[in-house]
Design a protein that fits this description.
Order of helices and strands: HHEEHHEHEEHHHHH
Helix content: 40-55%
Largest sheet: 5 strands, antiparallel
Shape: elongated
Number of strands: 5
Distance between the termini: 37 Å
Strand order of the largest sheet: 2-1-5-4-3
Strand content: 5-15%
Length: about 240
Amino acid sequence: MIADFVTTSNRATTDAELFELLGDFLKKVGLDAGYAYGALTHFDAYDFKSPLPRPAVTTTYSSDWIHRYAAENYAAVDPTVAMAPKATGPFQWKDLNITDEAAIAFLDEAKHDAGLKQGQCIPLHGPYGDTFAISVASSEDDTLSPDELSQVFLGCAQFHQRFIQLNLKSQKQISLTPRQKECLHWVAANKSNWEIGMIMGISERTVRFHLEKAFEVLEVASREEAIVKAIMFGLISP
């Protein structure tokens, strides 16, 4: 099943096709209540065309639950959102050691109102500290065996890799001049424009000019956003 999913997902050419393949794959292991895929960090470094409020990129949960989740700002109390960046591997909702009353109430509501009886969260970590996660649910209370959970992890990791490939394709043309890269490198080292000018042997005004041009290319408005995006695109090293 994993081999087939790798082959078909690698052939996918659109997000919609890839999302459908993921849904079919998850149903084959009994996870039939839908899934949610989101970028928990560095959301602005990607060009996601999603109408959903962050951190969600896409979800197949019921529309009523999606609207309630957004309206109540459940991302702030969802324990899977809090746990995913710290987790080293997939985990099941039942294994979460929760003491926060709001988080307990959230999971209870998800189970009884949204029909998400049991679920798994698959953290997906990137090379520069970015964290994505896929939360997958079942309409039954049955949990997955370790082997089944490993299959889900492998499938989700393959999906994530292919999705990022598709969504970064149009952005691979982004490039900066050597001077712009060098200025951003020193910005990442927490140097001021004056300090950068002294290091590079240019005026502070020239440093500002290079950074402004870099901001235009990267389509950002702040030094912090510029660093995140430049690292994500491999233009500078972290």
